[in-house]
Amino acid sequence: MPEVSVRQPDALYERVKPFIPAVEWPVFADEVEAISELKRSRHAVILAHNYQTPEIYHCVADVVGDSLHLAREARRLSADVIVMAGVYFMAETAKLLNPNRKVLIPDLEAGCSLAESITPEDVRALRVAHPGVPVVTYVNTSAAVKAESDVCCTSSNAVRVVESLGVPRVLLIPDRYLAANVARQTPVEVMAWDGRCIVHERFGLEAVQTLRREHPGLAVLAHPECRPEVVADADFSGSTTAMSEYIDRHHPAAVALLTECSMSDNITVDHPEVRFIRPCNLCPYMKRITLAKLRRSLESLEHEVEIDPAVAGRARRAVERMLAL
Q1: Which end of the chain is more exposed for a tag (fewer CB within 10 A), N or C?
Q2: Would you say residue 252 lies in a domain?
Q3: Shared domain check, 59 and 32
Q4: Taking all residues of the chain, what is their mean pLDDT, rounded to a whole number?
Q5: Is there a single domain that holds both residue 21 and residue 85?
Q6: So what's the pLDDT on residue 98?
C-alpha cells in the first residue's frame, strides 16, 4: 500500500537536473519541501500521471503511472486526502473508487479533449440507435458518461475488455483512433465515436517516416490514441506503462515515443543509455498542474471533487467491472 512520502529536496535534484537549471532549483526545492510537509500533516498522497512534468513526477508524487495503474492504486490507498496530478476525469475516477475520502484536483480547468467530445445524452442516443449493443467507454471520459456505460477500458486493456463481453459487436467510445486500432486486433466489430486526443492526433505518418530516415535503427513506440496508419508503422504500440516496459526489456539505442512530451523526460532519468528522440506534443491540460497549484491545493483543500451519488454508483460499477478483469 502506498505510503505518504516525505523527501529531502536536494537529494532529488540529480533526477531532474537535465530539465531544471541549477540556478532555478532553489525555487522548486522550496515548493517540494512545503508539499512534502503538507502531505505529512494532511495524511495526503499525490497520484501523478506519466505526463506530469519531472519535478512533479520525480519529486512529490507518491504513485506514478498510466490511467489503469492510478485507478488500481486509488482503491488501495489509506490516505485521508488524495490529490490528482493529472486531469479531471482521473480525479473523478479516484473519487469513484474512494467515495469516503477527500479527492482534490489542483486546477479545475485540467480537462481532456476526449472527455469533452461526448455527453451522457450522446451515449443514450447511441443506445437507442444500436439497441442491445454493449457500450465500452474509455476512462478518458466524465463520470456522467461512465454511468451510461456497461464497462470502462484503458488503452492497455481495451482489447481484453471488448473480447470479455462475448458479443459480436460493441460500441467503443469516444476515441475514434483507439477504436480503429482495437478493431485491427479483434474479430469483434467495433463501432466508434468521433472523439480524438488533441495530443496524439497530431502525430502524422510522414513525420514518423522522416524520423526513421534521419535516425537509422530508431525504435518507434506509438500510443493507441494515435492515427491507425501511425500505429501500423510503429515498432510497438501500447499504453504509457507498456512503452516504459518495452524500453526496460529491449533497451533500444534510440527511441521515439509518440505521446505527450513529459513521458520521455520522466523515463530518460532511469535509462541514460537510451537516446530519446522527441517528436512529442504538449498536453495543455496536463500542464495546468504545477508545484505551486499542488501546494495551494494541499494548503486550502480547494477544488474538491464531488460526484452526484445517483451518477457515482452507476459509474463506479463500470469502472469496477473493468478492474475485475
Answers
A1: N
A2: yes
A3: yes
A4: 95
A5: yes
A6: 93
